[in-house]
Write a structure and sequence with these properties.
The complex is a heterodimer of chains A (about 500) and B (about 350). Chain A has about 500 residues and is of the alpha/beta class. Chain A has helices at about 35-50, 70-80, 90-95, 110-125, 140-150, 175-185, 200-210, 245-270, 275-290, 300, 425-430, 440-450, 455-475, 490-495, and strands at about 25-30, 55-60, 100-105, 130-135, 160-165, 190-195, 225-235, 305-315, 315-320, 335-340, 355-360, 365-370, 390-400, 400-410, 420-425, 455, 480-485. Chain A starts with about 20 loop residues before the first strand and ends in a 10-residue tail after the last helix. The chains are: A alpha/beta (about 500), B alpha/beta (about 350).
Chain lengths: ~500, ~350
């Protein structure tokens, strides 16, 4: 029988989670922190769950001295330390022979010739796809993409190739466009998988199911019923070892431009016709385009930036940002940003979205809080309505994933006293089994070619268009407001909400 | 992952010659006591799990499986046991575990062991129904699917029946009978998920699919112990390839026979024991031969933790059992006495 007349695959009908095609995964920066903490444990756990295909190979590329055996030893240590399931000797023994290492400098053109040779040598004619994960500084994204294309591994390559990169995608709109142009000259957009690891989190994915699979929410998910929305990503940590990047980037670029604008787009976008990659991303882009761009002279009215001073967190005294190792004394980096976002479309006009992120805040948490409008009239005596607060729906992303709804209930007793009560749903109490890590999910999706949870080039561009005017305004603005480490942020941020009695939710 | 997690707190109560209302009342009291201790925990909201009576030698396996479920346990587990005395004895425990990470929710689950005489067990539904948590799915776990269910009304109260044909020794024919009456989720089938996916992936390539009408040999290498998983996998391949299964003859660890392709051609089917096998689901390799061509699928790194298997099997999804009935039918034809 000829290949053309091959019958349909009779085995596929019973498979809920198909395996990716045979793949060679090439990790640039394989001896770095991201590979050790997330990628190698993610690959291991995919193998453990039986989600890696026959013919799966890993080539780690790094500058570190050492050979294949050294890389395997290092990888084993990384998995043992960071895998969410620990390490199983049998499972490791099956994965280990699939790991190879290529030492070289990323700016050495010979590296890419060596890579091509190694790919041929390892795969023969077996590999159906090659995935390049750039776990390196974003300064190398463009050069690596060009070098890969130059080696015949970019657009139109056979076997097919994919490129995985993670923010930052540029430093501002101009540099993002420049990087985008380089990437798109080397790879087709369908080959590029831009990671925003927040999109790999269960609660973030649940946001769409919650909104679009629950009929009771749609009628109230608009300006008529929603008074305002608060999106918060707070960290208790300082900058750690990221000084060189963070001091020139700041919180606006590091968090608002990507994670929080992604969350905003998922909360506010229109319903997609289908849950597929481009349909969802089309809706997200449409929403981002409807976010009002501020003129430089408006920025002060809508955006507050801060920088942490010394303080106490968790019983430990912590230094001010400028006293962190490596930070210049006169640094103007923003470690806190709060901004009011206006979405100028039919659904949301007049309902503000407040985005807030900061380091050295009292605790680590990410949540989306939807505050509904109060009832028009409370038929209670004035003394009895003190506890009545408007309804609120809170989607908690981390650390405790779940959804809660605040209602008002009567306090048992003779009087009509009322107080808020919570209806809660917690992932940890409702579903059996461990959720995969965000990177595990995203790696698997990329191997399968499913781009739904990845950011498209036009999304990145629209995000920069929102943020860019703020960056320009800040170039000539006074230094960021100081806030005490462990506090709720600079007091100036409270003024952003100080209309109609709005206040920030406590962190 | 249990490393780093604090040991669970346990509050318990037991009674001899009790009534079911008393058990219910004591469970409420355990919760109140726990709250009064100042501990803030949420009760898991997953499902009710009823464990059918098993022989004393199987009780250890039940206990080990429940322990492995750990923090992911069902909300309320009701374990039925058999004793000689003419009365109902009960042990109730509330187990609460704080999460390892700060800020994460701590959860509690409840385990109730109900021990009764034979006559009461023939009315087991009347014992467990008052204790079921409302609005949660109910799963009936049969640790020994070959044994009769003491009260058939237990099946009526359950949305799913959980079995493990690789462990419980039930004849495959008995599983077919069960599957006619209720959705059966077989953990052995769950363990074979990797093999189904790998087989499907192997035949994604057209040149391999073109071999299918000419396959003349199927071999499954399995680990010692039971050959049920191997028979299920071989049965599934046969069913999906459209072959008519034939009986396999056993010879020590080997079972071999003939299946018939739709064009009348013969396929030699062999289940070979490999004492070194360590693959997922007790399978080491699956090989299909067509003339001089061969498609061999080997175990990867895939493993199957009992907790994950339970999590998969307890999902109320019809997709879990997709292909199971066909595989079971073919496997039972090949090995009617297997189990």
């Amino acid at each position: 029988m000829s290949v053309e007349a091959a019958p349909a695959n009779p085995f596929a009908q019973d498979v809920e989670r198909p395996l990716p095609e045979p793949t060679t995964l090439v990790i640039f920066g394989a001896t770095g922190d991201l590979a050790a903490r997330k990628l190698l444990p993610g690959i291991y756990n995919l193998g453990l769950r039986g989600l890696l295909p026959e013919g799966f190979e890993v080539i780690g590329i790094g500058r570190s001295q050492g050979d294949r055996d050294a890389f395997r030893r290092r990888a084993r240590e990384a998995v043992a330390e960071h895998s969410r399931t620990g390490i199983d000797d049998g499972a490791w023994a099956a994965l280990e022979p699939r790991l190879d290492y290529l030492r070289g400098d990323l700016d050495d053109p010979k590296l890419f010739d060596s890579l091509r040779s190694l790919l041929r040598e390892k795969e023969g004619d077996a590999s159906a796809q090659r995935v390049f994960y750039l776990a390196v500084s974003s300064a190398f994204f463009g050069p690596i993409a060009e070098a890969l294309a130059g080696a015949g591994l970019g657009a139109g390559a056979s076997p097919a190739t994919r490129l995985m990169i993670e923010k930052p995608f540029g430093h501002d709109l101009a540099s993002a466009e420049e990087l985008g142009a380089v990437i798109s000259s080397a790879f087709d957009e369908s080959q590029v998988f831009r990671i925003d690891h927040y999109l790999g989190k269960e609660t973030v994915q649940n946001l769409q199911v919650l909104r679009f699979a629950n009929g009771i929410l749609e009628p109230i998910w608009n300006r008529r019923y929603v008074e305002h929305v608060q999106v918060t990503m707070a960290e208790d940590l300082g900058i750690g070892h990221r000084v060189s990047y963070y001091d020139s980037a700041g919180a606006l670029r590091d968090v608002i431009q990507n994670h929080l604008l992604q969350l905003l787009s998922l909360v506010a976008m229109e319903a997609p016709v289908r849950f597929d990659a481009d349909t969802i991303r089309d809706e997200k882009v449409k929403l981002l385009r409807s976010v009002r761009r501020y003129e430089p002279d408006e920025v002060d009215d809508y955006v507050v930036r801060g920088q942490y001073g010394a303080g106490w967190i968790g019983g430990e005294e912590v230094p001010a940002y400028v006293d962190e190792e490596g930070v210049p004394d006169d640094s103007r980096a923003d470690t806190y940003v709060a901004m009011r976002v206006e979405v100028d479309n039919w659904r949301w006009a007049g309902t503000p979205f407040y985005l807030r992120t900061g380091k050295r805040l009292p605790r680590r948490m990410t949540e989306i809080a939807v505050r509904f409008r109060p009832v028009p009239h409370l038929p209670l005596a004035r003394a009895e309505i003190g506890g009545a607060q408007p309804n609120e729906m809170v989607l908690s992303v981390q650390p405790d994933e779940g959804v809660s709804v605040r209602l008002v209930a009567k306090v048992p007793g003779r009087t009509m006293s009322v107080r808020p009560v919570l209806m809660e749903f917690k992932y940890g109490t409702t579903f059996l089994g461990d959720s995969p890590e965000a990177y595990e999910r995203l790696l698997h999706d990329a191997l399968l070619g499913d781009a739904t949870l990845f950011t498209r080039a036009d999304e990145v561009e629209e995000e920069w268009k929102i943020v860019d005017p703020i960056l320009r305004a800040w170039e000539s603005a006074p230094a960021p407001a100081l806030y005490e480490a462990g506090s709720q942020g600079p007091p100036e941020a409270d003024e952003l909400l100080a209309v109609r009695g709005r206040t920030w939710r406590q962190i | 992952m249990s490393a780093g997690r604090p040991e669970p707190e346990r509050h318990s109560w037991s009674g001899t010659g009790v009534r079911v209302e008393e058990v219910s009342r004591e469970l409420d009291r355990l919760h109140r006591d726990h709250q009064l201790d100042g501990e803030g925990h949420a009760l898991t909201r997953t499902l009710n799990l009823i464990v059918a009576p098993s022989a004393p030698d199987a009780a250890g396996a039940v206990e080990a499986a429940l322990a492995d479920l750990g923090v992911h346990s069902p909300s309320r587990t009701l374990i039925l046991g058999r004793h000689a005395a003419d009365r109902l004895d009960a042990e109730a425990s509330l187990e609460c575990r704080l999460s390892g990470a700060s800020g994460e929710v701590g959860v509690c689950h409840e385990v109730v062991v109900l021990s009764a005489d034979e006559e009461r067990l023939t009315h087991a539904a009347s014992l467990v129904v008052p204790l079921l948590l409302a609005d949660l799915p109910t799963v009936l776990w049969l640790p020994q699917a070959g044994s009769p269910i003491p009260d058939p009304r237990l099946l009526e109260r359950s949305q799913q029946v959980l079995v493990d044909s690789a462990r419980d020794g039930a004849p495959l024919g008995r599983l077919i009978e069960l599957a006619r009456g209720a959705p059966v989720h077989d953990l052995a089938w769950g363990r074979l998920e990797f093999w189904r996916a790998a087989t499907a992936a192997a035949f994604e390539r057209p040149e391999r699919r073109s071999l299918l009408p000419r396959v003349s040999g199927l071999e499954v290498d399995y680990e010692g112990g039971t050959l049920v998983p191997a028979a299920l996998l071989a049965g599934w391949v046969a069913a999906r390839a459209g072959w008519r299964a034939g009986r396999l003859e056993r010879d020590d660890g080997r079972a071999a026979g003939i299946a018939t392709r739709p064009d009348g051609g013969e396929v030699t089917v062999a289940l070979e024991r490999d004492p070194e096998a360590r693959g997922c689901g007790g399978i080491e390799a699956l090989t299909l031969r067509a003339g001089s061509s061969e498609v061999r699928i080997e175990r990867g790194a895939a493993t199957s933790r009992l907790r994950d298997l339970f999590a998969e099997a307890l999902r109320p999804l019809a997709s879990y059992g997709r292909g199971y009935a066909e595989a079971l039918g073919a496997a039972a034809t090949m090995m009617p006495e297997a189990g």
